Amino acid sequence: MVQLWSQSFASHIFSLLFHKWLFEVELENQEILLRYSSALVQGATNVFWIDIQTNTRRFQSLFRYLLEEVALEPIRLKKIPIQAQRELYLLLSRFIFFYNSVDKLDSFLRNFPEFSNAFLIGGPGDFLVIELTDQLQKLKVEPVLLHYLSQMKILQGMELRMTTSTRLKACLYSFTSPGGPMYPTRAVRHAAWDSLDSLFPVGRYPRHLISLFFRLLYPWYWPSSCWNFVVSCIKAVLYSIVRLIFSRREKPRQS
User: The organism sits in which domain of life (predicted)?
Assistant: First the structure.
């Protein structure tokens, strides 16, 4: 079964089946319609996680179908029960960064269905960020995590409730320190710092000072930190020298 789902054509078959069951056949029984819709969301979740674990995008066409042909198409979306609509939007919120669809983010948030607990959680942006932070905590594949962190800057300027903003800040901060429970790599830590500083510029320097203080409490991290600092300085000097050489070569040509 896993080998079958890993085939490139599986997402197209999946889309065609549910397109027929949900949109071409008139179903009056709401229970059956809800069951089909829930199966669609659950099945899509499983196959999207196959892509996450393998860092591939075999099911990107399925994601694009659910986003562009269902979620952003009001006529088709209304044929799905409201409960399934909410589940679908939460699903898409978790994977919209992975499948490089942030260009649809504004339209996605505008069409977000209403939730009964919205007065407690907030607006569409809050639901999106909550799902993203939960997703980040589950990611174990480093390239995928780096991909998510690199796209987090798109959230800059989004209006969020204080609790949601604090949740996002805490999630990113958890990836900035070496050791347990996350054990992030150096690349992940730097990507998390970049996202954190971009989204929350206020308090940037105190955060770095506090982080440095706690790093000093663990002497076994000093050698690697010093080595990486020396390597970074050498690279910066080499890049400056190369840039200076090329700039001098271009001046005589221009003259």
Answer: Eukaryota
Residue 45: CA count within 13 A, CB half-sphere:
14
- Say how far apart CA 81 and CA 38 lie, in whole Å: 10
pLDDT of amino acid 137: 93
- The angle at the Cα of 248, spanning 245 to 254, to the nearest 5 degrees, equals 140
How far apart are the two ends of the chain, measured CA to CA in Å? 67
Q: What residue spans of 24-183 are helical by DSSP H?
A: 30-54, 60-64, 74-77, 82-95, 105-110, 118-121, 124-138, 142-151, 162-173
Distance (Å, rounded) from C-alpha 131 to C-alpha 64?
A: 19
pLDDT for 20? 52
Q: What is the pTM of this model?
A: 0.78
The domain limits of the chain are 2-219, 220-255
Nearest to 91 by CA among 40, 125, 140, 142: 40
